[in-house]
Amino acid sequence: MNKEEILAKSRKENKGADLVALEADSHSGKFAGAAAILLGAILNGIAMIRYNRALPEFWAIFFCYQAAQGLARGLLLLVGGRKAAGLGWLAYGFVMLAATVLAVRQSMRLWTAGA
User: Which of 13, 16, 62, 83 is most open to solvent, judged by the fewest CB atoms within 10 Å of its CB?
Assistant: First the structure.
């Protein structure tokens, strides 16, 4: 496939697509995720000051967000042919998934101990 064929294929795929809206969706999703994590960190800090303990629920959400991002990036990079980077992101995603499970287990222990 030469350069002209690749460009023609790309133009055909992107015809009718609102590239500005796609880019806005991408950036707004990143901003929303960062804002949610920041709010969780603030609430976690307040809990640490007020109750002298961290909130495992916050960490479960944080690690879940990171796991989803790592797994999605890893799969997309693998599909895109970037094997080394894809495997690295998949490994990161699985580590964050394990951290999510541990944080959820800690939350469950605290919830059942309080009941």
Answer: 16
